[in-house]
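We give the entry.
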Amino acid sequence: MSAITVASQMGIRGITDSTPLELRPNASQDQINAVLRAIYRQVLGNDHLFGADVAELASAESLLRQGSLTVREFVRLIAKSEAYKKRFFYPNSQTRAIELNFKHLLGRAPTDGKDIARHLDIYQAGGHGAEIDSYIDSPEYLESFGDNIVPYPRGFEYRRSYSTRDFTNMFALYGGYANNDRSQGPRPRLMTALATGFTPAIRRIGVRGLLPPSPISKHLGPPTGASDRMFCVEVTRLLNPDSALATSSRVRKSNQQIFVSADQLSATMQRVLKSGAKIVSVRSA
């Protein structure tokens, strides 16, 4: 079966066939308008700007049209704006906000729990602005998009450095070409996958969003229907930090953070205590 046929059946052909847009010098107004539409669609998760949002970004948009602002800096301003924060930062858990930052700014999903832990640390140390800068100033962003290519979904492309998990994680975040990220709710979509290391099920995408599992896909992860709430268990004196228990954690000073789903919380806490470690705190992630 060809890649084009598979993409069509899965509902992502519109993404895989699209050509990345670049704002070139001396671009016409039509070309600039197309670039702006693509930026807003990608960074705002296919949502629309209204009223005060339009006014907030009007000055930055004018600078982009004049050639005084790069696409990269315009993306940064949108991601730090109130328009972005009220859609994806204020109403969501931190873990869900980080998922969406990966999707909107790097065009991919987090690969594992270490991605989430690192960005939780960045947010806790420097706030929302530092979290946004960490994506846009990263070598990955510069290598993928440079200063004037509009970020686009890269997680559906085949790359030698990608694993199956990168593809399936991106699928879990993608709600369909006609859907928008604000309508998908505030809870993490990759919680179980990142906490356990299992890959989520691949589902076909219809006009209105996710459809039942496709005949061409197989569910590679744990049974569906598990709680989608995620917790961070902070422990100290973990005797074996290389154990399976710590697979999706990150050592920070003398403590360690373990990210688990709600239905695994009790069992994880019991294993931590039996290992001789001490639980410092348990909080919603």
